[in-house]
Automatic annotation (TrEMBL):
Name of the protein in its database record: Mediator of RNA polymerase II transcription subunit 10
GO biological process, one term: regulation of transcription by RNA polymerase II
Role noted for this protein: Component of the Mediator complex, a coactivator involved in the regulated transcription of nearly all RNA polymerase II-dependent genes. Mediator functions as a bridge to convey information from gene-specific regulatory proteins to the basal RNA polymerase II transcription machinery. Mediator is recruited to promoters by direct interactions with regulatory proteins and serves as a scaffold for the assembly of a functional preinitiation complex with RNA polymerase II and the general transcription factors.
Molecular function GO terms recorded: transcription coregulator activity
Keyword Cell membrane among UniProt keywords: no
Annotated compartments: Nucleus
Any one GO CC term of the record: mediator complex
InterPro entries: Mediator_Med10
Family: Belongs to the Mediator complex subunit 10 family.
Pfam families listed in its UniProt record: Med10 (PF09748)
Sorted UniProt keywords: Activator, Nucleus, Transcription, Transcription regulation
Complex and partners: Component of the Mediator complex.
């Protein structure tokens, strides 16, 4: 279905291009008739697109639509979004690694300070992905 719409969009672009060329090389009645036919083709192609477009199911966020409405490049939006996600992932990775280090240090200190809890600490370490007290 997407390729059909791609072909329809190409047809509209071709119609517009033909109209530009015809207007630049205007030669009276012949050009006027050709332009009328081209405008009819353009109208028909736009109508075809408007009937098939809703079936595509493409959803754009309001933010993307506003971005394009402001005359900004959607590729830049995509790049900025990817960079933002990468930064957020790095931040979360740092926090996750920090919690792992805190867990390991806390387990080690609890085991040293209260040896009677060492077995419980080992169980917690195993359940949370740790290697055990003094092994990491």
């Amino acid at each position: 279905m997407l390729t059909v719409n791609s072909d329809q969009i190409k047809a509209v672009i071709q119609n517009l291009y033909n109209l530009i060329v015809q207007s630049l090389e205007y030669q009276g009645t012949l050009t006027e008739d050709a332009m009328k036919r081209e405008i009819q083709n353009l109208t028909r192609n736009l109508a075809n697109i408007s009937t098939t477009a809703p079936s595509l199911g493409i959803h754009l966020t309001e933010e993307v639509i506003d971005y394009v409405d402001e005359g900004r490049n959607p590729d830049i939006y995509t790049r900025e979004f990817v960079e933002m996600v990468q930064k957020a992932n790095q931040n979360l990775k740092g926090k996750s690694e920090g919690f792992v280090m805190m867990r390991d240090v806390l387990a080690e200190r609890i085991s040293r300070a209260m040896p009677e809890l060492a077995e419980d600490v080992e169980g917690v370490m195993k359940r949370t992905g740790g290697e055990g007290v003094g092994k990491g």
